[in-house]
Amino acid sequence: MKQSMILLHGLFGGLSNWEGVIQHFESRYDIHIPLLPIFDYHLQDNLEYLVRFLEQYVQQHGLENAVIIGNSLGGHVAILFTHRHPDKVSRLILTGSSGLHENNNLGSYPKRGNYEYIRERVAYTFYDPAIATDALVSEVFQTTQNRIKCLRIVQTAKSAQRNYVAPVLPEIQTPSLLIWGEEDRIAPPEVAREFHQLLPHATLVMLPACGHAPMMERPEEFNRALEEFLGK
């Protein structure tokens, strides 16, 4: 029976962000990529709603001893879930995670209808702006065209900013891996080093010429670091 691997995307991320990881690990792991319900209507704190969604997802699928990997907001959700359910998580992997400090590069409200602005902001995510393909920019642009989705994005970003995880990190005994871009402008390298300091059993891997989404921008190096960590 394959071990479970849960991949959690960021605020503007999606299932396609994890293609390189899926291709590399799908033969050996039972991979789950839940679509985080960022745009749902609810009365809870937005981040708390996402953590509870993950709790229900794990319960419904009977997942045990899972490897959980989170990028950006997904990393934040993974931290809170692992802290609450250490028995469910065998390994925690964070990449560009929020929870300590993050430069919110979209401002207080995403500019609806301004395609070039969205292109610029998506490119800002990466060290190599060519990673911001027309398809990726169009996907984000379509999301920001919806007023309700824009509101949910802002609410979720603010919820994440309010939720400072430094106090809970020392309590997480799960072996952890931090894979970070040296050119991450959203969660800069000093954030990675602070995570490394606060997590008791953490390994830090810095990838040169790489921005906020290493699994997309440096998939081979990302998978190599992950492979080595999981093989220990």
UniProtKB/TrEMBL annotation:
Pfam families: Abhydrolase_6 (PF12697). InterPro entries: AB_hydrolase_1, AB_hydrolase_fold, AB_hydrolase_sf. Gene3D superfamilies: alpha/beta hydrolase. Residues 6-225 form the AB hydrolase-1 domain. It comes from the Bacteria. Signal peptide: none annotated. One of its GO terms (cellular component) is membrane. This is Pimeloyl-ACP methyl ester carboxylesterase.
